[in-house]
Specification:
It is built from 3 helices and 9 strands. By secondary structure, the protein is of the alpha+beta class.
Length: 134
């Protein structure tokens, strides 16, 4: 059902400083910040060739990563994103295995403009997993 690792997401307290570190110290190709108001975050993607790192910063009140940043003020790994060919087929299969999908359980459009869902860490060995349709 799952395909490639799409990205690893790191929540950061200051996305500009974090992006500059990856660009200036590590020499990585870094995107411009993009506000994702539907998700309550600002994102930056770092292209590693075979995968990406997504930097996440709190955007507005009620951001879903605010509690994470409160508990981890210097930031940290937030989730991993795995690719699936068909998000609805993946959801159907997960529901038959009682894997908890966060929110409404329905796909939303993610930062890449593709349908995504998040699987609750309690159902996935303590790791928040994002599935993205490719």
């Amino acid at each position: 059902m799952i395909g490639k690792l799409n990205h690893i997401a790191i929540a950061v307290p200051n996305i500009k400083e974090a992006a500059e570190q990856y660009k200036n110290i590590f020499g990585a190709k870094v995107s411009d910040p993009v506000e994702q108001p539907d998700h309550g975050v600002t994102t930056v993607f770092i292209d590693l060739g075979n995968t990406k790192i997504e930097l996440l910063e709190v955007l507005g009140e009620g951001s879903p990563i605010q509690n994470f940043i409160d508990k981890n003020p210097k930031g940290g790994m937030h989730h991993i994103c795995l690719e699936v060919n068909d998000i609805n087929t993946a959801i159907d299969k997960l529901n038959t295995h009682e894997v908890s999908i966060t929110g409404t359980g329905k796909p939303k459009i993610g930062a890449h403009g593709k349908p995504v869902v998040f699987l609750h860490p309690k159902s996935c060995n303590g790791t928040l997993i994002e599935l993205e349709e490719v």
